[in-house]
Amino acid sequence: MLQSDDNFSRLQTDHDAAALERVIQEYWPLVLSVCRAQLHDEHEAEDATQETFLKLARQHHTITGNLAAWLTTVARTTAIDRLRRIIRQRQRHERLAESRTDPQAESRARLLQQAVLSGLPEALSAMDTTASELLRRRFLVGTPLRLLAADAEVSVATMSRRVATAVEQASLILEDMGLLGAGDLDLSELLQRLGGMGAEYFRDGHDWLTPEVCPSDDAGTGPLPATRRRRVGVVLSHEAIVTPNKNKVYIQEEEPGFMLRVLKDADVDLVALIDPGTADLGIIERLRRDYEIHAGLAHATDLAALETLDVIIMGLCFSLPYRVLRAVHAAVRAGVGLINDGWTAEHRFGANDPLALDLNLCRARRPHICRSDHQHFHNPGCVVAHHPATVGLPIGWAFETWGCGGFGVVKPDAQVIATTASTHPDEPPERPCLIAGSLGHGRVLSFDTVHGYRIIQNSPRPAQLFGNILDWLARPSRGIGV
């Protein structure tokens, strides 16, 4: 293992992609054997192995002990997580099959549910306050995981584990109360089915179901006519997730979906836009589940499919495949709106790639300047202009921006809505960080910073602001005039 140790040292010190490949080749049999021992399915074991090495690529700089021991531990926990998900899916299918073949199964299940419901208020009151409130928000109010994660400033995966822990705590309390079979009941599914009945049944004094009140549009543009639900596509490119940029930096697994953390509008159908052949990969399945992208799947390279959407959301994708970049560009020119979280594909194809420039509403870009002191991660920003897409953001409203990306020379027909201060002597004192404009028949809102969703999230009325943005972007695709 001496050669692998040398390769791992180079990986940690130089972020050497070739060293990473050699480490993967050396340790692949070990990791695959650990995953096989847990999963007993070759395809699942290979997916878990790939996921383990992706974690190595992202976390190699944090490893201080023996690499083989670290990989063995991570592979085992990754495989166990996949196994638990497989078991839950199998149990749901078995219950469904039983209900179809056994005429008494449905009545028995209904009696068990009624028994559990009768004891649930007492169980919630006996739980830890934080866990009890989490169950209320997740299942009774129906708050999506992505919003719970954003409020707590944690990843969706972390919030999913917290919810699962709270459900397990409630199940154990119900068993202690003498409700036999409560542990065999999928309590999370039961809670999700409560809906409005649960709202009144479990109210305990404070009005935790009161919806957010959004004032009327003070610019007079008004919401879109309610002719149909808006179809919003979310780019989930597996290649962009597993491919580092030229500085050997990977995006976080969840970053393509970060913009959904501020989406509270129920009148939206979310469609996953994926690389061809990646629908069954664990990362893509997890992102779709955790961010509740349930309205369909489409290949991000399929222009005809993209043209059925009202808006495309493209999170941080600086290693986007060119075929995806080309299809999104064509769809926007045809009339589909685009929310662009900035720096699209520029690390792979260059800051001045024509298609990337168009989607960033720029005619040229200066290369990014990375600083070792991380001062660029907290730059002050300010709204400098009104725009129909950002009604509710007053001129002068201040916020923070993140990231060290290059800055663009904005197209003359685009409008700079907000700027951010530069902390680097070779950059202008201010640079654009929020730009709106048109590309062909479509409209684009470009966040020329990292995690532009934070600008929306920290705004005075984030839900209303994001709704206005979607409305403005979707108008051309619906044939509605400016």
Explain briefly what this protein structure is.
This protein has 17 helices and twelve strands. The protein has helices spanning 2-14, 17-39, 42-59, 67-101, 105-126, 129-140, 145-152, 156-176, 187-201, 238-242, 282-290, 303-306, 322-333, 346-349, 354-359, 453-457, 462-474; strands spanning 230-236, 268-274, 297-299, 311-314, 337-340, 362-365, 379-383, 398-401, 408-410, 415-421, 430-439, 442-447.
Give structural attributes:
single chain; alpha/beta; two-stranded antiparallel ribbon; 47% helix; 13% strand
* Biggest sheet strand line-up: 3-2-1-4-5-12-11-10-7-8
Report the helical percentage: 40-55%
Label the overall shape: globular
| Tally of contiguous helical segments | 17
Distance between the termini: 65 Å
The structure class reads alpha/beta
Order of helices and strands: HHHHHHHHHEHEHEHEHEHHEEEEEEEHH
Query: How many E strands?
Result: 12
Radius of gyration: 24 Å
Which spans of ≥5 residues are poorly predicted at pLDDT below 50?
A: 195-226, 372-376
Hey, roughly how much beta strand do the residues contain?
A: 5-15%
Strand count, sense and closure of the main sheet? 10 strands, mixed
What is the average of the pLDDT values?
Answer: 78
